[in-house]
Every structure is written in C-alpha cells, then in structure tokens.
Amino acid sequence: MRKILFMLSIIIVFLSCKEEKNVVKTKEIQRGYITDKAMVVSARQEASKIGADIMAKGGNAFDAMMATEMALAVSYPYAGNLGGGGFLVYRLADGQVGALDYREKAPLAASKDMYLDEDGNVIPNKSTVGPLAIGVPGTVAGIFEAQKRFGKLDVKTILQPVIDLANNGFIVTKNQENRFKNYDSLFTAVNGKKILFNQDLKQNDRILNFALAETLTRIANNGRDEFYKGETAKKLVQFLQEKGSIITLEDLEKYEAKWRKPIQFQYDDLTITSMSPPSSGGVCLNQIMTMVEDFDLKSYGHNSLKAIQVLVEAEKRAYADRSYYLGDPDFVDIPLETLTSSVYLNERMTDFTFKAPTPVDSISHGNIIGYESDETTHYSIVDQFGNAIAVTTTLNGGYGSKVYADDLGFFLNNEMDDFSSKPGEPNYYGLIGAEANSIAPEKRMLSSMTPTIVEKEGELLMTVGTPGGSTIITSVLQTILNVHEFEMGMQEAVNAPRFHNQWLPDEIRIEPNAFDKNIIKQLIAKGYKINESRSPIIGIVDGILVTDDGKLEGGADKRGDDAAVGF
Ligand code: DON
User: What does the record note on quaternary structure (predicted)?
Assistant: First the structure.
C-alpha cells in the first residue's frame, strides 16, 4: 500500500510539473489610477482637475485642452505657456485622426546668420537667453483653433476656472521651489529686476498671478485675436521691442496655427498616429518602430541586452536621418515616403548585428544631433464621448528665454534655438542640424515633440507623450512597447526605467541605478558606451490607456509632479 501511495505521489508530482510547463503564465498587470469615462493626465494636479471638471460640465477633450493648457500656463510656468507653442494629435470617437501645429515661427526680421558674429561663429547664448531667442508664439492660436473646430462649450466657461486659479493662486511644490531657486539669478539678469518667480519662494507658498488673470480675462472676452491683434498684442510687442526683440505686430497678426496630416503607420496590430513635420517625432517613431518590428522584442524581454541593442541601433539610424532631412515642410522638401517606407528602413538595418555596435560614422553622411533640454510638458486627455487627444507644448528651455512680460504675466519662449544657427555646428543644447533646419523668416523650427495616439484593431488604445528634448521620441517609443510587447499597464509602463540613443554622441544614456548591472557590463563588453550620469531622469511621460474592460488607466509620471484626474 505504501508503495502504491509512493508511486501515486510520484505520478502526481510528475503530472503537476508537466502541467506547469504547459501553463502560459500571463504577467500580472499593475494598474494606476482608473476611471470609467474621462481623464486628464498633466504635469500638475490643478491643471488635470480643471480639465476634468470642464468635461464633467459637458465639455469635450478639445474644451478640456484649452482649460488644461491655460491652467498649466498658470501653475507650471516652467513649460506651460502663452508665450510658446506646441502640437496636438487627436482621434475622434468615430476614428478620424488629425494634427494641429501651433509651433512658434521665426519673426519676419529673422535671418539665417542672426546668431553668428562677423567671423561666422555662433554667439553663445544669443539663441537661448533673452529677447532674440524668442519665436512668434503659437499657443493661444492653437487652443482656439482646436476648440473652435471641435469644442462644445463657450470660451468664457472654459477659461473662468483658469482665471480663478491665477487670481486665487497655486501651491509651490518642492520641485518648483528647487527650480525657482536654480533660475533666480538668471531671472533677475534677463529681466533687470526681480520677477514674480524669484521671491525666495518655498514649498507650499501660494503664487497669485493677477497680471495673467487679467490677460486671460481679456482673451476670454475678446477671443484669439486679443493675443494677436488686440490690447494684449500691442502691450506684448511694446514690451518685447523695449527689451530688444525683433518681433513686430505684423508677426503676431500673421501667425496661424496649421492643420497637418499626421504621420500614421502600423506596428503589429497597432495603428499609430503621431506628429508630422515640423516635428521630427512621428517620422522618427515610425522609422524606429518599423526597423524593430521584425525582431522578437517580447521574447528578448524588457530592458534585456538584446532588446536594448535592437532599439539603440534603430534609434541611431533614425536620428541620423532626422538631422539631415527634417525641417519645416512649408520650406523644405522632405522625402517622407522614402524615409518611412519599410523597404528603405529594412535596408537601413541590414548591417545590424548582435555582435557589436554599428559604428556611428558608417550610418550616415552626417550631421550630428546633441542633447536638447528637459523642459517641455505633455498632457493626454480622453473624454466621455470617446475623443482622445495628445498635446505637447513648450517654451523650449525651462521658462523659455527667461524674458518675463510682467504686465501680462507670462514667459516668452526661446524656441529659436531649435533652429540650426549654423548648419553643421552644435547649438546651445548640442544640436546640430543641416540646411533643412536653417533659419528663415516665418519658418518653423524643427521639433522632437511626439504627441501620439495608438489604436488596436480599430479601437482607441492609448494617448501618450512626454517632454525631454531629443529623448522625447525614444521615451514615447519605450512606453508604447512596454504596454504592447512587455504587457505592462499604463502607470507601470510610465514608471519603467528608460534609456536613449540618438546616434551622436555615440553613447547609450540610461537612467541612473535603474538597469541590471550585468546587462550594462555586457553592453560595454560589446563596445557600447554607457552614460548613466547625464541626468537623473529621461522624459516625464503622461498617458492614458484603455484597458481590456473599457476603463481608462492613467499613467502620470512621478519623475515630475504629474497627476491624473477624471471620472
Ligand atoms: O520642440 C522641441 O523638440 C524642443 N523645443 C522641446 C524641448 C523640450 O522637450 C524640453 N523639455 N523637456
């Protein structure tokens, strides 16, 4: 009997082992904040809440866009703005997609060599700090254009909570306290006096911005033209010219946001819609994803040696193309069809091998891209009607040019630095471009912003984006792959450690202390250079995912003060 029992137990153990082998273990997905109908994820709790409240009042994603964007201008002056620009990518409930370009433009008086001295050398800081760094702002035109076409509520209803926020104030976070401190002396140097944001502000202090409340009230009353032709325009131009800017009233009057055809491509069963030029985001994302599509990333594993190698090599090739071919499509012919064709992209990867890095100088004839700054902001919105938007907006550097129009209550951008001041030579952020991105009057400077919407089998899956200069594209890429290939939830995908390669400099930048030491060692052994110390974070991704049961999951990046709010 004992023998029989023993044999039986062996058989049971054997069977259970066998069964375990056949079990397909699905990874347990960790979820973030969940709502049923609508959500905003942005860089500030206040802005997400104001956007979500607008939808609760019956507004849609485009109404919420106007509210969120302006609330960020109040509570997140580091990147939220009236004096900057941005890009919107949308997908309507019926599946129609589109994109709006409200990128800044070079002023009419701008010229190709405006940042060069007599010997043709780039004058340090001229394109980054102070009045000459400023491009013609597009944000107010952008939010009005989108809201006019698709919104449901009236502008006064949308802007009133934002005006209240400016009047009643917002609370300084620890991150903000640190940033205000870091920029203190520069604010004074550029503006010739203390401004609202360098008054020794501490965490939990409240900042009231009455000047901005007044500007927003005039805009709410008089509409878009208030900013481009009205009293605000006149005040702004007078202020800018006193400061030494070349921007005129004509520049403001001529500014227009432009509807663009977004970049759209397939990856497995996903349809991805992202920003077209003058952003490089969609093109590069399309290139990288097409180059890696035939590799079995899922079986390699998240942040595994092979997955990192494949992605890095595809990134190198895409960024090499970016620097040479991309610029404002209204000024340069971009061979978009070729750049995004699978024949071309598969050809680009034929010299890839897992044995060693492809040498950077064998990849293209090229021009080099260095690092960009880390001070843009992205927000994602899904409304209760099924519309989804992804919006990335920026002043470029933190607080833009640092020029602060204190009568109007906002900073002006330093977006002119996204042009290539001298083709072939790095700008302040190390960015080198080619002729395609040289300065010309009314031209839009090349961007990396990548607001992106993902569909799966014809249904909305995700809206996503991030700040981070040139790391924007690779952060968006990794977040999509984390969900699609590595079965993560939205918050989990946002939290996961990120890496970045942009062809030149010839290195893989990784978030510190976040990667397996063994994998780093193996990459180094293969010949890759690793930079773990450039900055503590790569990107601040905000996104919304539609879960299998039709709910919305927010991914609000805790690398910042970001927050998801919805209902
Ligand atoms: O448009 C661009 O690509 C840059 N001006 C973005 C700058 C940026 O992302 C800075 N912040 N994170």
Answer: This enzyme consists of two polypeptide chains, which are synthesized in precursor form from a single polypeptide.
